[in-house]
Amino acid sequence: xxxxxxxxxxxxxxxxxxxxxxxxxxxxxxxxxxxxxxxxxxxxxxxxxxxxxxxxxxxxxxxxxxxxxxxxxxxxxxxxxxxxxxxxxxxxxxxxxxxxxxxxxxxxxxxxxxxxxxxxxxxxxxxxxxxxxxxxxxxxxxxxxxxxxxxxxxxxxxxxxxxxxxxxxxxxxxxxxxxxxxxxxxxxxxxxxxxxxxxxxxxxxxxxxxxxxxxxxxxxxxxxxxxxxxxxxxxxxxxxxxxxxxxxxxxxxxxxxxxxxxxxxxxxxxxxxxxxxxxxxxxxxxxxxxxxxxxxxxxxxxxxxxxxxxxxxxxxxxxxxxxxxxxxxxxxxxxxxxxxxxxxxxxxxxxxxxxxxxxxxxxxxxxxxxxxxxxxxxxxxxxxxxxxxxxxxxxxxxxxxxxxxxxxxxxxxxxxxxxxxxxxxxxxxxxxxxxxxxxxxxxxxxxxxxxxxxxxxxxxxxxxxxxxxxx
Length: 471
Prior knowledge:
The chain is α/β, with parallel strands linked by helices. 51% of the residues lie in helices and 11% in strands. The chain contains 22 helices and twelve strands. The chain is globular.
């Protein structure tokens, strides 16, 4: 997948002016975040579960090799095969080889962000195999030759009229904007694809070491059809998704759906454990698991290890003011929002993504809502420090930061600077007290007016208060 993260500022400017995108994001911001609040209000022990989830994830990461080896043993015991992929290229090659071995012409896919990460669809298409996305959102954007803008709701950037236009163009049916009719239309088209597919490929929310099982959670049932109808099922997953036991898995499921969509539980929670047995009538004959590293093992023991706790709920982006303003495509790669601002530099290099850790208001909302308590603001600051140390920031920005640092470290100068600044801003604002344009603050005033300060600076007010105490 093409990396466009260096163009974040340009992408964001385009997104802010995109009327249809802003309509879609406006509805999004009043949906999932509100649903999350309602869901956790019904579960008094939610914060306790978050602590337990964080601690369990830390334990897993400290013993990752042990649990992965146990998972592999159990998969083999159940008649399946495990394949290890160090890089994206390795993972694509392995998946293609499995498909080629059964002479596959078409594959259906349940939603998998790891397959987006490694560029699997393009790899298979280049080798004559047609991948068909079966998650409704993924199916829509595949028809549009688009890419996901969110890890849970991939087509959140589209409006119903846009979807209606897409279906009308590709399905050759009467155009409708009725949501139920559009879903029925997609279901009828995809049903034939499910039956005809040679291979089914799914992601995995968790891998269970105790049983060698994989689990996929969906709200549409497409994951079940993808993994049970074809003779070959391939699970593609990153290595950090392993959990010790089925009971541990249920702990994460209790916080996952509530954090992601505000549901108590997803509609379908489907476990796969090996291929079809001799006494079973359905399910795949061949069961393969491709475990993808792709730089994750390098994060173990380092300052970014906490990011490996992520369970891909999307809550950080659901509640992020930056994501809510510019959408997922602005981030320029697979993973958007705060989690992407940490993970993308690790995957593609800070040199190719230096703007992302700075795409934050530092409000801390992402850490506040994370079900496994990842300190996302701290991790973004780590990347900012590395960006600065490698001199990736423009010289003008570095000069500005150094100048500001000097002013802030000299109290007398700082006090005079802000005292004068308050007076200047009040003059610029005029009688209405609003500043339409302000030098060095164009990023703010291009989109909204800035209120002028109406009173003294903090230090002036503080000194006046202290003087009042003495009197």
